[in-house]
Amino acid sequence: MSHIFHRFPGNLPPVAVAGDGVFIIDKDGKRYLDASGGAAVSCLGHSNARVRDAIITQGQKLAFAHTSFFTSEPAEELAEFLVRRTPETLTKVHYVSGGSEAVETALKLARQYFVAKGEPKRGVIISRERSYHGATLGAVAISGNAWRRAPFEPLLFKSVQIAACYPYRGKQGNETDLDYGLRVANELEREILAREPGTVAAFVAETVVGATAGAVPPVEGYFKRIREICDQYGVLLILDEVMSGMGRTGSLFAFEQEGISPDIVTIAKGMGAGYQPIGAAICTQEIFDTINSDGGFAHGHTYLGHAIACAAALEVQKVIEDENLLENVRAVARYLSESLNERFGQHPNVGDIRGRGLFQAIELVEDRESKRPFQASRKLHAVIKKNAMQRGLMVYPTGGVADGKAGDHVLLAPPYIVTRGEVDIIVDRLASAV
Ligand code: PMP
Fold first, then answer.
1. Which of 47, 75, 198, 395 shows a CA-CA span of 20 to 30 A to 113?
2. In angstroms, how far is CA 58 from the centroid of its own chain?
């Protein structure tokens, strides 16, 4: 009997003991091709020797020095590395240990910025339906994910969720993508105008929606309009790139492909690539200076800027750069998309195949004609995941369209080192599992 709070009591998962590139190996020696990077985490694959050595080297020198006393070389170097590759307006890195902490940090940065700026009425956070921003209370409060919110409602601060941009289901009549994107973006303006002026602090969105909707990229024009609205009404734009950032979509940040830049971006997962728990909220100099002029940020976690975590994350980013892996992301992503379309495009239960970079999903529906999502009670996601695991394949089931419960999507987020040959194996095993 396990004493761990496993997600599936009575049905213990296999015991992972080793990693080898895109594979995880269990205690019985069975190899699983990690086609989901865990949950869009393991962008370098498993047991990378350079990252392992960086962890050992830093561990031999110093593991941890609390930030109320010290900074460390790896923390400084990593921040410099990130800022050099980030749009020039984003200059200050606040480290955390994971995605939820990054989102909490972003929300508190936004709030304290307005307090420090003398606009204390700005406290409303607007986010989107079918979004996931994390498991801590602040992150749950802004996530549009009904079943994850329900048990905790009395503990959550009030926030507002507007529609997300989801052309596959949201487009009306003969609307073009651009018309649709602008219409949905304008809902933000309507929501701001419906409130007392000067009360909205921030709008939060995943640049490419991950865990609740299955790799939905934004439509053209959507984020440009969102940026304009935020600027016009003095609202901060927070982009949550915990899943879609750090190269997953083919550029370091997914927002670079939208021609905009947020005031705060949150990152985690691919930042440490699973080698260490680490994340960050990166903000503008203005936010940093304003908060600092008012006594400094009233926030922080014990392990922020952990030296081993920073050394690992820095090496991860250097490997990606040295091995030109974002080029591989872009090239193999095209092949993955073609292969998925070829194999599943005509499947009677496939409603859509979409994504960006090595962040792609297949949407499963009752039938191709009605495109009705599967009923939650069928637990299709669990069945496909189990079938895939039996076949030595890891795919990530993501929440449904209908009520946030149905496993209507299979998310694929393989490591950036994945080859075309491995994509063939992924597609074969997935077809068999489906
Ligand atoms: N934001 C997004 C967009 C996510 O996908 C996730 C995790 N799936 C989180 C935040 C929370 O990250 P973590 O699980 O590391 O706390």
1. 75
2. 28
Query: How many Å apart are CA 103 and CA 283, to the nearest integer?
Result: 12
Residues with CB under 6 A from ligand 1: 39, 98-100, 103, 132-135, 206, 210-211, 240, 242-243, 268
Minimum CA distance residue for ligand 1 atom 1: 133
- Which uninterrupted H or E stretch holds 234? none
pLDDT digits (tens, 9 = 90+) for 157-190: 999 999 888 877 788 999 999 999 999 999 999 9
Choose which residue among 127, 145, 248, 269 to substitute to test ligand 1 binding: the one with the highest number of ligand atoms within 8 A of its C-beta. 269
Enter the ipTM. Answer: 0.99
pTM as predicted: 0.97
**CA pair distance 167, 220, nearest whole angstrom:** 11
* Nearest atom in ligand 1 to 100's CA: 16
- Give per-residue pLDDT as tens, 342-362: 999 999 989 899 999 999 999
Reading phi first (left if > 0) and then psi (alpha if -120 to 50, else beta), residue 259 is in: left
The closest alpha carbon to 395, from 376, 379, 382, 406, belongs to 382
Chain-centroid distance, C-alpha 183:
25
Q: 3-class SS at 90?
A: strand
CA 218 – CA 199 distance, rounded (Å): 27
Two structure tokens written together for 353: 């195949």
CA-244 nearest atom, ligand 1: 3
Residue type, 10: G
162 has which bridge partners? 128
| Domains located in the chain, CATH noted | 16-48+323-433 (3.90.1150.10), 53-322 (3.40.640.10)
Helix, strand or coil, per DSSP, at residue 140: helix
Residue indicated by tokens 């019985």: 28
